[in-house]
Write a structure and sequence with these properties.
The chain is α+β, with helices and mostly antiparallel strands. It contains 3 helices and 4 strands. Helix 2 packs antiparallel against helix 3.
Length: about 160
């Protein structure tokens, strides 16, 4: 069986960043899949499910309500390895194209206060597994350490 593309990336060289994971054609449309890598794989602890779940709820809510991108958002959700998230957008995009969007989203998460959208038994299958404090901390860290001074080492997959 052929390895899927994401398993061919050298995760020992991969830094936290914003990467184009793949581009697919669906009829006439291009779908761009982004790898929003928040922690360094195999070098630092993965994120716990509670903060991943909180970032998912806040990120998806932010993206699906964004004035410019809401109609392009197909999916935002966590990687199984808990080192980041996938964002699928309709259209042919580059990593650099969405850096401003990612800054907006992670500022929204960092600054969020109140009840997490969808964090109720009626709305979510595991609503108790949330950690807003850690989600805010991780969003702030990602902004400071990655997005605020992002360059090609964190926008293009390593060789």
């Amino acid at each position: 069986m052929e390895k899927i593309t994401s398993f061919t990336i050298d995760h020992l060289k991969l830094l936290p960043g914003v990467y184009v994971s793949r581009k697919d054609s669906v009829g006439e449309m291009t779908v761009t899949t982004f790898d929003i890598r928040m922690t360094r794989p195999n070098f630092e602890p993965v994120m716990n499910t509670a903060e991943v779940h909180t970032i998912e709820h806040l990120g998806a809510t932010f993206l699906r309500n964004h004035d410019v991108y809401k109609d392009q958002v197909l999916y935002f959700g966590p990687m199984g390895c808990r080192t980041g998230f996938y964002l699928l957008l309709a259209g042919d995009h580059t990593s650099r194209d969405i850096v401003p969007l990612m800054k907006e989203m992670f500022c929204f998460i960092r600054d969020f206060q109140g009840e997490v959208p969808g964090a109720a038994a009626r709305d979510c299958g595991n609503y108790l597994d949330m950690n807003l404090g850690m989600a805010r901390y991780l969003a702030d860290r990602f902004l400071r350490e990655v997005l605020d001074s992002i360059d090609d080492t964190r926008l293009v997959y390593p060789d």
